Request: fold
Amino acid sequence: MGLVQEIDFGTPASKAEKQVTLTVDGFTVTVPEGTSIMRASMEAGIAIPKLCATDMVDAFGSCRLCLVEIEGRAGTPSSCTTPVAPGMVVHTQTGRLKDIRKGVMELYISDHPLDCLTCAANGDCELQDMAGAVGLRDVRYGYDGDNHVFAKSRNALEGGVANMRWMPKDESNPYFTYDPSKCIVCSRCVRACEEVQGTFALTIEGRGFDSRVSPGMHQPFLDSECVSCGACVQACPTATLTEKSVIRIGQPEHSVVTTCAYCGVGCSFKAEMRGDELVRMVPWKDGKANRGHSCVKGRFAYGYATHKERILNPMVREKISDPWREVTWEEALSHIASEFRRLQYQYGRASIGGITSSRCTNEETYLVQKLIRQGFGNNNVDTCARVCHSPTGYGLGQTYGTSAGTQDFDSVEDSDVIMVIGANPSAAHPVFASRMKKRIRQGAKLIVLDPRRTETVTSVHAKADFHLPLKPGTNVAVVTALAHVIVTEGLFDEAFIRERCDWSEFEDWAAFVAEPQNSPEEVEKLSGVPAETIRGAARLYATGGNGAIYYGLGVTEHSQGSTTVMAIANLAMATGNIGKRGVGVNPLRGQNNVQGSCDMGSFPHELPGYRHISGDAVRDIYDSLWGVKLDNEPGLRIPNMLDAAVEGSFKGLYIQGEDILQSDPDTHHVSAGLAAMECVVVHDLFLNETANYAHVFLPGSTFLEKDGTFTNAERRINRVRKVMAPKNGLADWEVTQKLAQAMGLNWNYQHPSEIMDEIAKTTPSFQLVSYDLLEREGSVQWPCNEKAPHGTPIMHMDGFVRGKGKFIRTEYVATDEKTGPRFPLLLTTGRILSQYNVGAQTRRTDNVVWHAEDVLEIHPHDAEQRGVRHGDWVRLKSRAGETTLRADVTDRVSPGVVYTTFHHPDTQANVITTDFSDWATNCPEYKVTAVQVGLSNGPSQWQEEYAEQARMSRRIEGRLEAAE
Amino acid sequence: MSHDENAGRHPKLVRMANQIGTFMLSKPHDEGVAGVAEHINKFWEPRMRRQFFEVLDGGGGDLLPIVKEAAPKVRRPAPVEASAS
Reply:
């Protein structure tokens, strides 16, 4: 199989259209204007020796190894910094060049250890390669002089004296080491941190021979601003920055391209393997979502796959108070089948249902909804998108005719004004954030609507031009106020609206937004955002060039989530920011395959491809293929399932890869619903929180252990490839298939590609998608059909999917969740960079060094009033429940607002959140909860009871220690 | 305040129906009424619609006028499926 080889062209590609022809060593080569000689040579197949150049960063010209001679020009210019010119005649290998290069290499090696045989980079060291390439045979200078290599002086006179230039290895980062003795000061790491990641955590301290790479102010990596994205490690040509896994295991021998299983960016990685052991994950340069970049989660946090707490055998128990009993697959599956059939016989066909996973593949999700519709005979299927982006589906569907995000990620390279609403990509979609910040450093403007002053609002060389720190729950008012300014100041794009939208609907909407109660001055009173800031932001978005909106769960997870999505859609239509590169309305999806799980028919009212279940023609397709009569009534959504369970009409649930007890709001209500059911089946990697209420546990497989596809936030269908056998014995799609077979269904898929073929056959937007196509194209964005055989990077290019874009009035309605004397503060929730969702994966990796517990951010003013100091334990209480956690006193939050994350089950922020939800989709209102905060003596009673109950419910017969 | 026998029945469902009604209030009246009915028909499982009609048939409780007006266009679900118990 071998390693996936990627050519390093030395410098980034030029985007120029004009072509230039030159000769390199007698070969003619034609490249875009602005290309470096180094890159042009590589295009011609000639690799010029280099050390400080790599095509992930701009040319720097410091190593002096890539020198060339150009006919008619004096000297020996560096090929990385010299652009091509028409008719140029370049020589890369002359006597003069050879001598210079050998001399340069000799100097490098004179200050570098010669422990190549035992070095972690052995087999993957560019310095070693270059020594070989230039024919270095001798180093005349010795090591007695000044050096950075040895801890003690080797000079005979000073023998044994400490070498002040030497620095010990920095092993503070859990995933990689920094060994200064091996550093050649090529600055590739520093430039990767600046240009690719945009964090600027690294610099070169000192000058000349004193130059050293320095994280922060000469700090250990872990204490610096470093976000552990891995770009520096990837850029390093030596063993100076090396993955600890490579040090431990050795160099990989083969690699497989696959897709990250964390956030909705969907980065492509090379899983680099030695046998069936994963050595490291390296971002793949040809990955169209990430373009060779990564974050700490995808790059490093995969250790959960082999964590000791992973459950590998199916388990069953009679009552949830019993310990688990390990059983065979056959026993577990036949138990579920007979229980589910019993429940349906006893309580009716609609008494059971299932939840598909946004972490599993499209193929697996498709099978779960098929099992429910075909096997259970109802539409009681939902997915975690219910609690995140269901309002996107509804809001964009109403206005544009499709829930699809409009752009690809590349589009941001052409944006002039970027508006981020209710999202913090620096923490939750870090690789997109890096691409966005790169564009901001090139001059694009940034507007952020967020109650907190997040990393996205202020980061190095990327600051928001306008930050609208709105009070949680006032999104609709503020976005409508932006529209007010655009309409009343005449900043709308009349030509676009007349051509693409219904003009009379626009007039109606314009009259509505122009009403005085929607003016920034009035909205300031509700939202706390100064009117002038709203006006400034609106003017910038409407007139600043290509305006792109990116939004997250701060938009959707509200009582008016769907209304805000419509308000955003209105804004983009009114300004003509739809249907071309650089613009658009872009929902940033949370989980890796939340887009895909929605596409695959996971919602109770629609079949794959967003076709409503009431449509006879659509049902006919499946009726004839599956040999059943599908129910034409919508099924229950997750909150409705729990309500029905409490009421006694819903009794059984199959949950694949989701932890609703921790992730869904109002934990008490969720646990009451689960406890009222008679057969809860959890299919997961770990005994998660929901499993405390389960009767059957089916062990799941990780993304490394199966074939399939994930669809990211830009609708890109990426392959997931199996790199090792499932430790639990079966891939998740096989488990669902065996369950279907146990329930009497005649399924016989041999490979996930056959499932995709069925999806393509039945779903118009997937018509031409196949594993063969994905093999050829790498990835493809749906719709992919006869009209768009190579997929659709940008939607609505020639008109809206629904025909005319629809302007919809967006009346602000205050949420019923109101502050008052008992609960005077507003709690809003979110995520941080190092942890992912409920933390089931990331808590089982070394990422906990960055975030070992959830903390409560509280403004100094509110903290002082309550006698709360930084680090104190505080009690957080709402009308739904209470918990305790530590306080982080900070002015990132405004007075009156507190904030926490939901990554840790022992804090369980969702004990606090209420059962209020979006009017259209029942998406929970996570982002607004009225709370009180006070000093605490210790864990709440609930926390103590929960910890005890969790411990009891995780007991496994015959094992002493219960797994977490 | 309503004083009929169904006051307070299925409060969560009434709240959800009223949330839909409230959004539809900003539309032209007929369109709004149709919108409420369409939304409930499209997204509410028969059990929920059954409860909706329980509230409505008992006088409508705290349902907003626009919701009550939309009710005739909401599809009445089939009677409860016969089960063995």
Observations:
- Chain B touches chain A at residues 12, 15-16, 19-20, 22-23, 25-27, 39, 41-48, 77, 80-81, 83-85 (CB under 8 Å).
- Confidence is low (pLDDT under 50) at residues 1-6 of chain B.
- Residues 19-73 of chain B form one domain.
